[in-house]
Please model this.
Amino acid sequence: MKLPPIQYKTVLITGCSTGIGASSARLLKERGWTVIPTARKEADLERLRDEGFDPIEMDMADSESVARGAEEVLRRTEGRLGGLVNNAGFGQSGAVEDVKREHLLHQFEVNVFGLQDLTNRLLPAMRKQGAGRIVHVSSVVGRVSIPFLGCYSASKFAVEALADAQRVELYGSGVGVILIEPGPIITEFRRTAAQRAEETLDLEKSGKSQFYIEQIQKRLDHQKKANLINKEPEAVAIKIVRALESSRPKRRYAITIPAHLGAFMRRFAPDALVDFVLSRKVRE
Model:
């Protein structure tokens, strides 16, 4: 899709404590962008300050925090915001039957409701200037739902649906909506997901308790290494830069071989084959 060039190289990036958000903030800053990163915890905000950023505290599950953050962004930029990168999010692990309602709700509050609330609050400024880029960091699991990550997958499916609708709704406005779909990226995501599973799942009552215990320990003990399958967060940051700077950005950017395979399978493989491939994880 062809979009007008960004008039103001100012960008808000959510979820910049580590990983993809932090890497994207650094890379865009190197390329001359004025980057406003967000984080929830004071320690992470202080770390960003030490790197020369002026971050904003924002909790995507708190509508008042999102509203305050959006207002502060517009104040700092005088309404001249070129880009928004919705990166903040987390993964709720566990079989769908084992995830309690409040934890499913929190998954959507952070990954979907907060994301769309922030987007809608900043969109009028982009409409007014006739140009802007909204970049959602989704996932390959937003195309293919993964067992034991069904709740996280559902949140990413929702993000993809909202993005597809809003991209068309904004046709002719100069504002583009772009999806980033990473596969396995070496960040704290797996460790954080394992810790959350340990906190939220009833390991004693679940029929999959032994599986959970083994998987949680595996993710806490082992960090993946970069190779053909697993990529560093910088690989995602590069695609985010393209989404913001290209005159003809793609609607979706898949990152890593599994992400490309997942997109291919969803488009061309029959459901029975997809189920068979994914069921191997259940049979382990």
User: Anything to note?
Assistant: The chain has a mean pLDDT of 94. The longest strand covers residues 175-182. The longest helix spans residues 101-129. The domain at 10-275 is CATH 3.40.50.720 (Rossmann fold).
